Each structure stands twice: as structure tokens, then as C-alpha cells.
Amino acid sequence: MSVIVFTVILLLGSYFAGLLGSLTGLGGGFIIIPLLTLLLRVDIHYAIGASLVSVIATSSGSAAAYVREGITNIRLGMFLEIATTAGAFTGAVLAIYVPTHSIAIIFGLILIFSAIMSLRNKVEQIVHKETFLSKKLRLGGTYPVSGGVVEYGVSNIAGGFFMMVFAGIISGLLGVGSGALKVVAMDGIMRIPFKVSTTTSNFMIGVTAAASAVVYLQRGYIHPGIAMPVVIGVLLGAISGSKILVHTSSSKWLRWVFAIVVTVLSVQMIYNGIRGNI
Amino acid sequence: MESEETYNPPAPLESGRQEKNKPGSLKDKDIQVIIGWILRGGVTVSILLVFIGGILFTYRHGQSIPDYKTFKGVPDFIGNFSGIFDGIITFKGQAIIQLGIILLIATPVIRVAFSAVGFLMEKDYLYTAITLIVLLIILASMFSGRAG
Fold first, then answer.
1. How many angstroms separate the CA atoms of B52 and B56, rounded?
2. What is the pLDDT of residues A2-30, one digit of tens each?
3. Residue B49 near chain A (CB below 8 Å)
4. In B, residues 108-137, which contact A (CB 8 Å cutoff)?
5. Is B101 close to A231, i.e. CB distance below 8 A?
6. pLDDT band, very low/low/confident/very high, at A134 (cuts 50, 70, 90)
7. What is the mean pLDDT of residues B42-69?
8. Helix, strand or coil for residue A98?
9. What is the pLDDT of residues B121-140, one digit of tens each?
10. Where are the alpha helices (DSSP H) in chain A?
């Protein structure tokens, strides 16, 4: 396959990955890595590097918009970034030693988990009580709604912190944003309102990915010929996705489409991982 | 006048934060605006570089057959900073792409560095320390990569 054909296929594929990733909130990395490894037969380390770069682009681009709206809890994000960057550093080092077929299998499993997570119904929850640690670290906050602001507290900080270390390891090992795991930590464990957890998780993804990208960059995992079409395609797709998202109120059917696509891809990744094809 | 009331920040959960929100001082809101700027600017410039480099690269090497099946790292001339710098001066597409990617990776790191300055100006020493820890972890990650 010549450079021009490879670039065009990857640009188109990345565009759709970015579009679907942004519409469902899972990020583009989950489609990029199977696309590169299964379809284009690219080495998984190159795939992880390119995906990680695209994760930084989309996360930073959309975080810029959310931060201005005042929904993102910057203090909470900064505090938890200690956990995610430490995890990401560990994950990037692990990626050097973990055999590639194991990476493919872990990838498939996390992918299935994320698909299930994206299908669950989101119920807004607000905890008003503040724990001792939450007060000390001033993690509680407010976010604007039409006609005022909502105050919220943060619970089980230690639990959320450890979940974030794990989310960071997965992000560094697989080259994805692991937004689903971050939302588990914030929604499920720390009981933060959904609106805040989604935007704050997105805010953290860029820094988390950068912590492992600096390792990948120096190890030669980030190849310009592969990263170039991926990062441009995913970013354009994500921008289109955010425009569509404003106009459609229900994306239920889309999440189902994505869940099915993702399940097929994850089964493929696990199968090829077990067979040793990756 | 009354309509302005609704836009006022609510009573903070803790009294300590109140003084940080008084008018005139650097507020959380200002930091948020600047952080938004850094992120947007960084992404825009780096994507432009990647795009320009991408056009040069596909124009010159469009017909060559790349081999990405086995991992061989990156071409030698973009393996280090001085190589990338030489490549940019001679308009090598892959070197320009790589510069864009390095800038993209640096964008969230610059955001963290700025947050540290912001917290320091707010006299929020706890969060200045937390932010510096994050920066240190990223730096440690950077140097571990070089050592290996």
C-alpha cells in the first residue's frame, strides 16, 4: 500500500472514529487501534502512539470549550491528575514489557466494558454533604444551570483516587483516554454530578495522555506518517460530532450502534490476540 | 439591577474561599479563561503544523511503500530534537509533523504549568503544590523515556 492510499484510508477511518467517539463520549481511540492493527496491519505500538496523540488533540480541544462554561471542576481535576499521570507513567513503562498479544486482549476487555458503560442510563446525582478530606482539599464546587447554580460535594476520595491510578495505567498501556474508567471513578465512587464528571474527566484526559506520550515519543512509537492522518481525521470528526450533538436531543440509537461496533471490534482484538496475530 | 443578582457566585461551601473571590484579585474564572485559551491555541497551531507537514510528506513520498507492520521506531532524522530542527529548516514533511505533535503533547503540560502559576497568584499554596507534583510526574516520565 502506497503512502497516499494509506493516508487517505486512515484519514477517512479516523474521521468516523472521531465522529462516533465524540457522539458517544467514548473517544476515538477505541476505533483507531483496531482500524490500524486489524485492517491496516500496523504494529500495535505505532497504533497506540498515534491514538494517544489524537486523544490529546480531542481532549484539549473540547476541554477548552467546557472550561469556559465553568462546569469543569479544575481543583478536583488537578488533584486527580496526580493519580492519572502516575498511572499513565506506569502504563507506558509496562507497555514496553507486556507482550503485544496481551495488550490486544486487555484492549478488547476494556473496550467491552466501556461499551456497556456507555449504554447505561445516566441519572443526575448530587451529594450535598462534604467529607473531611473533601473539605480539606476544597474539592466541592458549583456548576451553572439555567436560572442559577448547583452546589455539590465529593465523597469517597481515596476510592476515587485509586480508581484513577488504574484509569491512568490503562490509558498509558493502551493509548486510549480511558474516559469510561474515569467516569466510573467520579460518578460511581465519588458521587459527582454527571455533568461535572464528564467535563472534568475530559479535562484530565489530555494531561494523562501527555504523561505517557512523552515516553512513547522518545521510544519511537509515535510515527509521523501514521499519527498525521489519525490526529487530523479524529479531530475533524470530533468537531463534526460536537456540532451534531447540539442539534440532536436523543442519541440513544447511536449509542447502540456504537456498542455493537465496539463489541465486534473487541471480540476481533481478543481473538487475534489469543491467536498471536497481533 | 436585580437581574444581575442571579449571576453572582453562590456562597462558597467553605469560608476560606470567599476572600479569593473578591473583585480585583485573580479569580478562578480568569484562570479558566486563560486555560481555555492555552488549550485552543496549542491545538490549533500544532494541527496546522501537522497539516502542512502532511501535505509536504504525501506530496514527496506519496508513491513509496511504507512498512509499518514491524516496529522499527521512527526514521533516524526525527529521532531527536536537533534532527527535527535540521529537518524543519530543509522543509522535511515528517520533521514538521513531528514538531506539531511535540507541540500538541506539550499543550496540556503548558496548561498544568500555567495552573501552578495561577494557584500561586491566588495564594492557594495547597493547589500550587498539587499542581507541581503533577508536573514532576510528567518530567519524571520524560526522563525515564530518555534513559531507556
1. 6
2. 999 999 999 999 999 998 887 777 777 88
3. no
4. 108-109, 111-112, 115, 126-127, 130-131, 133-134, 137
5. yes
6. confident
7. 93
8. coil
9. 889 999 999 999 999 999 99
10. 3-24, 29-34, 44-69, 74-97, 100-119, 132-136, 157-174, 179-183, 194-219, 224-247, 252-275
Q: Residue A277 in contact with residue A100, Cβ under 8 Å?
A: no
Select from A249, A187, A106, A51 the least CA-distant residue to B101. Answer: A51
B96 inside domain? yes
What is the C-alpha to C-alpha distance for residues A104 and A174, in angstroms, rounded to an integer?
8
Name the residue facing A225 among B36, B94, B107 (closest C-beta): B94
A213·B105 Cβ contact <8 A = yes
Residue B28 has pLDDT above 80, yes or no: no
Nearest CA in chain B to A137: B126
| Neighboring chain B residues of A209 at a CB cutoff of 8 Å | 108
The Cα-based distances of A66 to A37, A199, B148 in angstroms read: 33, 6, 37
The total of structural domains in chain A comes to: 1
Nearest CA in chain A to B148: A219
Confidence of residue A122 (pLDDT cuts 50, 70, 90): low
pLDDT band at B10 (very low <50, low <70, confident <90, very high): very low
Instruction: Please report the pLDDT score of residue B111 as a whole number.
Output: 92
Phi and psi at residue B72, in whole multiples of 5°? -130, 15
What's the domain range around B119?
Answer: 28-143
Q: Judge residue B59's burial from the number of C-beta atoms within 10 Å of its C-beta, 0-12 exposed, 13-18 middle, 19 or more buried.
A: exposed
Nine-digit cell string for A271: 481473538
B40, B59 Cβ separation under 8 angstroms? no
Q: Is residue B15 part of a domain?
A: no
Residue with cell 480531542: A58
Using pLDDT thresholds of 50, 70 and 90, give the confidence band for residue B36.
Answer: confident
B18 and A CB contact within 8 Å: no
A169/A212 Cα distance (integer angstroms): 9
- A141 CA: distance to closest CA in chain B (Å): 8
pLDDT tens-digit map of A71-121: 889 899 999 999 999 999 999 999 889 999 999 999 999 988 888 877 776
